[in-house]
Amino acid sequence: MTRVKICCISSVEEAMLAVKYGASALGLVSAMPSGPGIITENLIAEIAERVPPGVASFLLTSKQTADEIIEQHKNCRTNTIQICDHLIDGKYSELKKALHGIKIVQVVHVTGEESLHEAAEVSKHVDAILLDSGNQKLEIKELGGTGRVHDWSISKKIRESIGVPLYLAGGLKPDNVQDAIRNVNPFGLDLCSGVRTNGKLDVQKLSMFMEKVNSL
């Protein structure tokens, strides 16, 4: 069964609602240059503490150095770290050594065929890859939450070329999720706006999304 990560969780109540409808992971967004769902590190820690066993809690970080990520995780205490930008100082091995037992997921923003090489290289050092539709080259970086679908044919090539689980993000919603699964066959799906109305988790959309996923 394809796993589902609900991102942009903004409260304990939203976290419990997502889990109730079958989410296997929750995304908790720390400070970002742009995008939805940003909450304080104190609230991330509070939600992470309440997440039941068997459900992954993802800290989404825009930090780009190993030392900063390690320090941030001390405050947030999730069981997974999602690095949304490039790691420019320090190594993944440093993160794993300092954060024993914490899973590391690297985001690759699919912009073209060049993303194949990026994903293949970084997959050697992390526990999973997450493909999204951001743009790190803009003056104000987009590191997720754009609601845009990227080229799934590239996503499929990446999934076939790496040896770690792959999460697919970017513009997923009830209307296109089955096509996404058929085209890419990811380990997991990651979404935010596709199950929200006015920024709030929408039970009807969430239920419909999970029904579409589980019916395949």
Explain how this protein is built:
With 216 residues, this protein is α/β, with parallel strands linked by helices. It has a single domain, classed as Alpha-Beta Barrel (TIM Barrel). It is 35% helix and 20% strand. The protein has helices spanning 12-20, 41-50, 66-76, 92-98, 114-122, 152-161, 177-184, 203-214; strands at 3-6, 25-29, 56-61, 80-83, 103-109, 128-132, 166-169, 188-191, 196-197, 200-201. The strands form two sheets. It has an eight-stranded parallel β-barrel, surrounded by six helices. Helix 3 (66-76) runs parallel beside helix 4 (92-98) and helix 5 (114-122) runs parallel beside helix 6 (152-161). The longest helix has 12 residues, at 203-214. The chain is globular and about 40 Å long. The termini are close together. The mean pLDDT is 97.
Question: Summary?
Answer:
With 216 residues, this protein is of the alpha/beta class.
Which topology does CATH recognise?
TIM Barrel
Helix content: 25-40%
SS class: alpha/beta
- The count of β-strands is 10
Low-confidence stretches: none
Biggest sheet character: 8 strands, parallel, barrel
CA-CA gap between termini? 8 Å
Strand content: 15-25%
Order of helices and strands: EHEHEHEHEHEHEHEEEH
**Gross geometry:** globular
At the fourth level of CATH, the homologous superfamily is: Aldolase class I
- In the sheet with the most strands, the strands line up as 1-2-3-4-5-6-7-8
How many helical stretches?
Answer: 8
* CATH architecture name: Alpha-Beta Barrel
- Round the Cα radius of gyration to an integer and report it: 16 Å
CATH class: Alpha Beta
**Rounded mean pLDDT score:** 97
| Tally of separate domains | 1
